[in-house]
Description:
The chain is built from eleven helices and ten strands. It has 301 residues and is α+β, with helices and mostly antiparallel strands. The protein has two domains: 167 residues, Dbl Homology Domain, Chain A, CATH 1.20.900; 128 residues, Pleckstrin-homology domain (PH domain)/Phosphotyrosine-binding domain (PTB) (PH-domain like), CATH 2.30.29. InterPro entries: DBL_dom_sf, DH_dom, GDS_CDC24_CS, PH-like_dom_sf, PH_domain, RhoGEF_Guanine_NuclExch_SF, SOS1_NGEF_PH.
Amino acid sequence: xxxxxxxxxxxxxxxxxxxxxxxxxxxxxxxxxxxxxxxxxxxxxxxxxxxxxxxxxxxxxxxxxxxxxxxxxxxxxxxxxxxxxxxxxxxxxxxxxxxxxxxxxxxxxxxxxxxxxxxxxxxxxxxxxxxxxxxxxxxxxxxxxxxxxxxxxxxxxxxxxxxxxxxxxxxxxxxxxxxxxxxxxxxxxxxxxxxxxxxxxxxxxxxxxxxxxxxxxxxxxxxxxxxxxxxxxxxxxxxxxxxxxxxxxxxxxxxxxxxxxxxxxxxxxxxxxxxxxxxxxxxxxxxxxxxxxxxxxxxxx
Length: 301
């Protein structure tokens, strides 16, 4: 933040900033200032304010207190979700202007071996390291004091990572006319084989539908189920980026569900309007199917 972000306002370097970067500081750095603030902020504990890192370090003598450091900051840690959501935009901008003289000059002044993009990846790596720490701690704490809290803290961190992961997919939905932020919480997302059976359809269509499944990426929201088709695009010599083109949606208030389909325990049905449209959905495993069914059930009840 000091060596790069602040330097973008440095009058003596202004002429080196590429035009593609003008007024795009927020895109490149996302909410990094907010993350910095979080790690710099004191939280009052028993009369003595303490920073997150310091509080974790204080647990070296009392490891059973570690989980509390995370649980106390459950809400705060969600700032990482926002950071990760912005990451694809930040990376695209970096690809455009990362090799500019401006960044070379900043890096030279800082005497860093690594360029800025390596540091911009740190928060994404950090959020996954927390859950690894908690997992390792749990392995060492069989039914001792603080175990239940550790489990809760791990669940919290895994939840944040799931949200991050889900929202990374969600921002890649294209062609949906409405506003996904109005569909309620994104509960689940994933790829499935889908067969459709429409009463209104011509018999030919029905027969075809029986055999060849469509590959669909489903997004389950509190108010709506979206069916999308996954497309992978190569970005100029970089890793493939997926986008999901919207195909159709079902309002959760009008759907029904059949949990078991004859002949395949990985399949379930979602139907619409008194079975006028039936979607047969095949998960990659029975466990995955059951997770989705229980989430859908929660929405329906």
